[in-house]
Amino acid sequence: MKKENLGRRLLQIVIVLFGISFFTFGLTYLSPGDPAEIMLTECGNIPTPELLEQTRAELGLDKPFLVQYGNWLKGVLTGDMGKSYSMKVPVVEKLVSCFFPTLKLALASLLIMILFSIPLGILSAVYHNRWPDYLVRGLTFFGVSVPNFWIGLILLSIFGVQLRWVTVSGGSTDFKSLVLPAVTLAIAMSAKYTRQVRIAVLEELQQDYVTGAHMRGLSEKKILWKHVLPNATLPLVTLLGLSLGSLLGGTAVVEIIYNWPGLGSMAVKAISCRDYPLVQGYVLWIALLYMGINLLVDLSYERLDPRLKEER
């Protein structure tokens, strides 16, 4: 990617982040509920009007909207997203502490998905309209149709309640606690990516260069691994990038089922507590991750297909 295009993309990211931050801050400002009152009544006490006014002044909630947004944006630019109302810790510190468990879960689920979806997709494409293809398509149909929360509850009931291989309470991020949530996320993703791999490989198998390779006497195995698969990977890279961004945003349902201390469960708790600084920081954090991953995916295209570099 040329420097001009890269600079343009970075400028677009900055503009989009500014728009997202303004929109999110405006929604939280207009949302019902008083954060100061919620924060003071957590312990079951009823705050006095004087204490409420004092707390609002300390939090800066008594100032006009644009002043509040300007102060918050100034803090964000210096690395300070404020302090969580409910957890009494800096927002950046909380986001970082929840990001690494989510990253660990996302990479594990992607690895499991790749290990299953790529071989099954290739098998389904190679044996097109034969019994292995029908079997794989049936499995993927089941995987796409079944919701994640149902799969999570079934796996937790079998391996947590009956077999007692994992603790039902969760709360840990060790390998033993990682397996079930990663498998739960990977099942639905594997079903979707298996279909995508199958479609991509089938399209490449129908290209003229495959016919030419057969006429030159190349083996099926060499054609598949040396020519078809490299050409079929380009559209899959985009899907992998989007899936990674989605997973890093936190899969709230799965994280809540397994009590996984990641970004998804943190976001649900922040919303329920009207923890506006944490919600605003979370939305901005996820937007930055999404756009950063999309930029990396675009940069990787030129490595995977040098023709794109020549066109640009």
Detailed description of the structure:
The chain is mainly α and 312 residues long. 78% of the residues lie in helices and 0% in strands. The N and C termini lie close together (7 Å). It has helices spanning 3-30, 35-40, 49-59, 65-77, 91-126, 131-145, 148-162, 175-205, 208-215, 220-248, 252-257, 263-272, 276-304, 306-311.
Largest sheet report: none
Let me know the average pLDDT: 81
Can you give the helix content as a percent range?
A: over 70%
Instruction: Write down the overall geometry.
Output: flat
The first-to-last residue Cα distance is: 7 Å
Task: Give the helix tally.
Answer: 14
Which secondary-structure class do the elements indicate?
A: mainly alpha
Strand element count: 0
**Spans of 5+ residues with little confidence (pLDDT < 50)?**
none
SSE ordering: HHHHHHHHHHHHHH
This entry's quaternary arrangement is single chain
Q: Give the C-alpha Rg.
A: 24 Å
Strand content: under 5%
What's the short version?
The protein is mainly alpha-helical and 312 residues long.
Keywords:
312 residues; mainly alpha; 14 helices; 78% helix
Layout of strands and helices, then pairs:
Blueprint: H1 3-30, H2 35-40, H3 49-59, H4 65-77, H5 91-126, H6 131-145, H7 148-162, H8 175-205, H9 208-215, H10 220-248, H11 252-257, H12 263-272, H13 276-304, H14 306-311
Helix pairs in contact: 1-13, 5-6, 5-8, 5-10, 5-13, 6-8, 7-8, 8-10, 10-13, 12-13
